[in-house]
Design brief:
The chain is an all-alpha fold. It has 14 helices and no strands.
Amino acid sequence: MLKKITVLLEMIKFKLTIFALPFAFMGAFLAGRGLPDWLTFFWVVLAMVGARTAAMGFNRIVDRHFDGANPRTAERALPVGAVTLVEAWSMVILASFMFFVACWQLNPLALSIAPLALALTFFYSLTKRFTSFCHLVLGVALAFSPLGGWVAVSGSLAGYPWALSIGVLFWVAGFDTIYACLDSDYDRRAGLHSLPARLGSKRAFRLAILFHLIAFGGFALTGVQSGLNGWYYGGIAVTGAALCYQHYLVNPDDLSRIHASFFSMNGLISLTLFAATWLALITAA
C-alpha cells in the first residue's frame, strides 16, 4: 500500500504543490493581516492539497493515451500500468471529497465557489484539444489559489487585491508556455494545441516574456493595493531577478536546463513572495 501511494504521489508530482500553496497562504495572510488561526490554516492546506491532487489525477487520466504515445511521458504510471484507472479515479474522488469538506469547514462563500474552482482545474486538462491558449486557462485555475486563501479567512471578496491573481495568472501562463516547448513537435503530430506548437518556440518564448512582465507588474501592484512595506518590495526584487534568470537559463535553441528553470526558479518565486508578504505584515504590526 505504501509503495502504491508513493507511485500515485509521484504520478501527480505531489511535491510541486509548493508552487500554488504559498499563494494561497499569501491570500490568507493578507486577509487576516497576519497568521490566521491554526484551524483555518489547516483547512486551507487541506483544501489546496485536495484540489491540486484531484486536478493532477484527472489530468493524468484524460491524457493517458497521449502520454503513452509521447516519448517524454511514455513512462508515466498510467501508460506503463503501475497505476490502474480504478486507483487513479479513486484518488481523484477522494481528493475532491477532501477539498469540499475543507471548504465546507471554512465558510459558506468558500464552499459556494469550490465547484467552480475545481471544475476549472479539470477543464484545463481538456483545453489542449481545442485551443492554444490552454496555458492561460491553467493560469486562471491557479489564480484561484490566493483568492481562495483570502475567502477562507475573510469569508468575503471585499478588499481582495485582484492584482495578485493577475500576477499568478500570467506567471503560470509564462512558465507553462516555456515548458510546453518540450512537447511542441509531438503536439503538432498528435493534433494537440499549445502556443509553441502554433507559433514555434522562438515566438512562444517572446510571448512568455510578455506574460512574465505582466506577472511582475501584478505582483508589484499587489504591494500597493495591500499597503505593504519595503520587505515586500525586497521580495519583488528577488522575484524579478528569478524571472530574468529563468529566461537566461532556457532559450528556444537550448531546452536542456528547462527542469532547473521550471522547478528551482518557480519554487523560489512562490516562496519568496509569501515570505516577503509575511515579513511585511509582521513588521508593520
